[in-house]
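Page 42, continued from yesterday. The earlier attempt failed because a stray header line got pasted into the input along with the sequence. Redoing it now with the clean sequence only.
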Amino acid sequence: MADWGPFDLTGKSAIVTGGAMGIGFGIASRLTEAGANVLVGDLDESAAKASIEKLADHRGTAIAAHADVSDPSAGVQLAERCVAEFGSVDILANNAGIYPIVPFADVTPEVFDRIVSVNYRGLLFTSQGVAQKMATQGTGGVIINIASIDGIHPSFPGLSTYGSSKAAVIQLTKNMAIELAPHRIRVVSIAPGAIDTDGARKLAESGEMNEEERQGIADAMVAKMPIGRMGNPDDIAKVAVFLASSAADYMTGENVLVDGGYLLG
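This time it went through. Structure tokens are written below.
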């Protein structure tokens, strides 16, 4: 695609958290394809470095960075690195997240704190640090928060804390949109449905469920989808490029549902 038109991101610089694999890598890939320079942040910096090798032939440049979003200073550090490398920070994709499957009766304070420290608290303070840099630049920006359909409606048992953390993300997006609008910073969220990622497939390896259980849940979800298939990271990444681009200039505070029609059932 030679002419990206209103979707062109040439000259923009982005940060993607949890960008080494799955949805995060998909977003990084499409952003660089659209011309943006991308700082691929991940808790596993070696995985981030390996991932950017796959983006070498894209229009934009990608570099890797260590990013632990549970550290409240992560946003400031990532923003400073992005500006040092690329000259500005214009886009933040808050993708880093965890989804332990724990029945409600078995949720402990430790489980709760671990999920919230990444999915909600981490997203908030990462956004705060990056937004401060965007505001100082005076050129506006876009923050894209990755939520989930579980923030709207439970998809299957065992995600009470995960789902409530994503519901918080959806509400936080709306509040951030109001407060950051004077700085010309748009804030939106994407709520993916069932996405086939390496992380999802590794649930069986982690012992949280066996492969038969995982496949059973996937089949049951697909059966409710009018589109008739699981999503893939690129389904989310292409929406992220749209939201980051000038094509979405008149959108803020919205939660965009990308679920293959699952919640229609």
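Notes: Strands lie at 13-17, 37-42, 62-66, 91-94, 141-146, 185-192, 255-258.
Reminder to self: strip header lines before submitting.
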